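Recap from last week: sequence in, structure out.
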Amino acid sequence: METGDGTQLLRDLADIRSIVEPTAAHRAARYRIADDLTALETALDAMGQAQIDSAAAEADAAFHRALLAVTGNERLRRMGLLLEPGLRERDRVVHVHGDAVDPVPSHRAVLDATRDQGPDRAEFAMLDLLAKAVRDMEDLARPSGNTAPLKAEATTRRNRTARRRHSRTS
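Predicted structure tokens:
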């Protein structure tokens, strides 16, 4: 992916994911049934065993697709159709051109919270996962010096979500 439009596409993807995926993780943890966990576990195992970038990208896409399906909401499940091509491209760019952090622990945190039916924990685990994804992209953008907007957007989203969650529980 070239700079310019490609960079904006990845920023837009990060923005959409920050809107959709934390809520999806929250819903998945709240409404999941035992059978729902199989696809998440299978995808995470494949991610851990992937030796080539395309296999890692497929496993990552499968994990996020499964998480959206676990919500029980057909429209959220279909969001995967929108997110998946960009997610695969993001993974390709990050894993081919950068030294991305191992994605398994952050995905495992989402899975563990979902398994334990901890909706708030799942949501915050997803926010952490997305923050790592932004940092991976920042690392690639660093030579161009254009990293501040991505970092500020991720921090703002996390703080806004934390305040929203806190106000619901107060």
